[in-house]
Amino acid sequence: MNGSVASSAPYADRRARLLAHMEPGSVAVLATSLEVARNADSDYPYRHDSSFYYLTGFAEPEAVLVLAGARGEQPARAILFCREKNPEREIWDGLRHGPDAARTAFGFDAAYPVDALDEQMATLLADVPALYCKLGRDEGLDTRLRHWLNSVRRQGRAGIKAPPVLRDIVPLIDEMRVVKDAGEQATMLRAGEISGAAHVRAMRAGRPGIFEYALEAELLYEFRRNGAQFPAYTPIVASGANSCILHYNSNDRQIRDGELVLIDAGCELDGYASDITRTWPVNGRFSTAQRTLYELVLAAQQAALDAVRPGQTFHSVHDAAVRVLAQGMLDTGLLGRDRHGSVDDVIANKAFTPFYMHGTSHWLGMDVHDTGAYRLTDEPDKPSRPLQEGMVLTIEPGIYVRPAEGVPEAYWNIGIRIEDDVVVAPGGHTMLTGAAPKTVAEIETLMREG
C-alpha cells in the first residue's frame, strides 16, 4: 500500500478539496494510528488511520499530515511529518521512506522528520484564523495541541496570535469519503472478487464434521494468496444455533450434518473493505424448512437491491427488505395473523424484530462500517439521505429463529443472512460481490461438484 509518484494525484486532489471546505488561511492537523503492543516485544499488525491514508496514501506509523491554507502570497501547502531514515531499525522493521523520499513519492509540498513537529507547529499556527483537528478523539494529539497553542500564545507580545477557533475536521473528511471515485471503486471490486472466491472455497471445503475454524482457515488462505493484506473484520463462521448470534466469532464448534453455516467474511485490499455473507447447508442440500426461509431472505435482498438507485433514500432500501420479510413471517407462521394482523400491522408495530433486528445496509469503504451520515442532519426533521452515484453500501437482510413458544419447531436454530456490496450507479447499482454464488441451485451445484 505504499504510494508512488503515479498514484499521488488522487490524494493531492482530496487534500485540495478538503482545504476548499475549510476556512481560508486555516490549518488542519491529522495523525495516523499508533502502533499497539500485543505483548512483550510484539505489536498487533499495524493498520494506518483510514482518514489519514485517504488524504496521503502513506501507510507508515508515526506520521502527521498538516494542511496549511493559502495566506497572502503563500500558497496552500501539504506537509508530511514522518520517521527519518534509520538503517539500523530498517534491518529489524523494514523500509522507511524518510522525509525526502516521502515528499517526492507521495506528492507533498514539504516533508520533515516527525521529531520536528512541535517546533514547526509553533510557526505554522501563528496568526491563522482556525485550527482543524480530531477534537477529543486522539488524547496524545490533544495534549500536543495544547502545547502548540501555548507556544504561539507566548509570542503575544510580538503581536502574534494563536488560532481563536478550534474546529472538528472529522465531519468534513467523513462526507468526502462517502462517494467513491473510480479508483476506489476498482479496488473495492477486486476486494469483492477475492472475498467471493474465498466464500466459494469455504463452500467446497464444507462437509459434516468439519470445524468452524477450518472453514475460517480456508477464507484467510484465499484472502492472502490473492494479495489482500488483512481480513476486513474478524470472520464469522457460525453453524447451527450459532447462526442466530449476529456477531458470533468464536468459530470453534464442530458442524453437524443437516445444519446451516452462516459465513460473514470479507478481505481488506489496499485499505478498502469488502463485506459478504453467505449461508449454506454443510451437507450440500437445503432441507425444506431451510430452503423456505432462505428463499424468503433472498427475495428480501432482491427487493432491497431493486430499491438501490440514485434519488432513492437510504432507508427505503431497508423498508423494501422489511416488507418482504414481514409478509414471509406471516406466510410461514413465524408470526400469527390472528395476533399480528396484516403485513402493514407487522411493520407498524415492529413485530418482525424478534426475527430481524438489524438494519439492511451500511456504508462501506475504507472502514467496514464506513463514514458518513445516514440522514440529512442539517434538515429540521432529519429525513433519510438520498442515494447518489458513487456511494457504496451493503445489502444484508436476514432472519434468525431461536427456539420460542409459538414458533414452529421446524425453523428453530435457523439463522440466515445474505449480504452483498453494491455501488450506486446511473439508473441502479453495480454489484461488487457477484463472484459468491447465492441461489439455492448455485450453492447446491457448487457443493455437489466441490
From TrEMBL:
Gene3D superfamilies recorded: Creatinase/methionine aminopeptidase superfamily (3.90.230.10), Creatinase/prolidase N-terminal domain (3.40.350.10)
UniProt-listed GO biological process terms: proteolysis
Keyword Magnesium applies: no
Cofactor(s) annotated in UniProt: Mn(2+)
Reactions catalysed, as given in the entry: Release of any N-terminal amino acid, including proline, that is linked to proline, even from a dipeptide or tripeptide
Highest classification ranks of the organism: Bacteria, Pseudomonadati, Pseudomonadota, Betaproteobacteria, Burkholderiales
Family: Belongs to the peptidase M24B family.
SUPFAM superfamilies with a match to the protein in the record: Creatinase/aminopeptidase, Creatinase/prolidase N-terminal domain
Stated name of the protein: Xaa-Pro aminopeptidase
GO molecular function term, any single one: manganese ion binding
InterPro entries in UniProt: Aminopep_P_N, Creatin/AminoP/Spt16_N, Creatinase/aminopeptidase-like, Pept_M24, Peptidase_M24B_aminopep-P_CS, X-Pro_dipept-like
Protein keywords: Aminopeptidase, Hydrolase, Manganese, Metal-binding, Metalloprotease, Protease
Domain Aminopeptidase P N-terminal: 6-142
Residues in coiled coil: none
EC number of the protein: 3.4.11.9
A Gene Ontology term for the protein's cellular component: cytosol
